Amino acid sequence: MIASIHFEDDKKTLQVEASQPLTKICDEHPVSILFGCRCVACGTCLIEILSGMDNLSPIREEERILLDILVPDHPNLRLACQCVVQGDIRIRVAN
Ligand code: FES
Q1: How far, in Å, from the CA of 11 to the mean position of ligand 1?
Q2: What's phi and psi for 23, nearest 5 deg?
Q3: In this model, does residue 3 exceed pLDDT 80?
Q4: What torsion, rounded to 10 degrees, do the Cα atoms 66, 29, 16, 93 define?
Q5: Which run of H or E residues covers position 25?
Q6: With a 6 A CB cut-off, is 42 part of the ligand 1 pocket?
Q7: What is the pLDDT of residues 16-62, one digit of tens each?
Q8: What string of H, E and C letters represents the secondary structure of 34-72?
Q9: DSSP letter at 29?
């Protein structure tokens, strides 16, 4: 299945194979999202999901903990390093 990812900051839309980590996609197609630790420690990769939240892998415990510390009460924010893309999304950098 092909997923469409729109990067608002870069005005760029990619068509990629679904079920890939967002980190892998961003490594292969340079965009504005920055990654620091890639392991739920730094918060550098914070993104806002403009549409398609249901098309990302579910939030796991360790991501939830860091999101609650960094951006409590912002349900449309995710850590890009933890997201697997499962369908169409529109995102932008949130930090
Ligand atoms: S890159 Fe550090 S939390 Fe995602």
Answers
A1: 23
A2: -60, -45
A3: yes
A4: 40
A5: helix 22-28
A6: yes
A7: 999 999 999 999 998 999 999 999 999 999 999 999 999 999 999 99
A8: CCCCCCCCCCCCEEEEEECHHHECCCCHHHHHHHHHHCC
A9: S
